[in-house]
Amino acid sequence: MKYLSTLLKNGFSLIVTASALFYTNAAFAAQRVVFTYGAFQQSLPVDELVTFAKTGETSSSIRYYLDQTRQDPRSIRNALTREFNVTPVTLDRTLNSRIGLYLLDQISYSIRTPSNQANRQALRSSLVLSASKDNKVSLIEVIQNYPTSDVIVEGERILRTYNQLSLIAEDIERIFGMPTSLK
Predict the structure, then answer these.
(1) pTM as predicted
(2) Could you write out the DSSP letters of every residue in 103-172?
(3) pLDDT number for residue 6
(4) For residue 162, what are the CA distances in angstroms to 73, 91, 128?
């Protein structure tokens, strides 16, 4: 009887912990993206950026940002939405390898936490969470799944960041022999 009681208690704890993790994951998704471009800085709701990425529709704040930074909307949209295929397990293994850690550090210059601390961990979490939904990762998903309420994106480096993400895909293919593809 004591064994059954302990088993039920542990099972209940596991359910509560899993529920908390699920709830916490949704609670800590990015709400705002803060684009910097040189000395210029613009804060945008992530929802507006997602709408722009999916439909091309620009809000007044996105239009203002694009005008001020003289960015080509098509290039930015392309960088935000291009995907590469990868399973979360393979991605996690790669990101925990020496080259993966290096790439996380490099990408963290472009996408980072507001405090500029734990960038590697936040980025790894966001990438793996993005892949866990459909075995695909895009820059817009990485921004959406970033585990802080604000995510800083260096606008000057956004295309470079996409290229770095594609390097991860190539490394996964080379290291693990798993085909990945950019769409």
Answers:
(1) 0.76
(2) HHHHHTTTEE-TTS-SHHHHHHHHHHHHHHHHSEEEHHHHHHT-SSSEEEEEGGGHHHHHHHHHHHHHHH
(3) 39
(4) 15, 16, 16
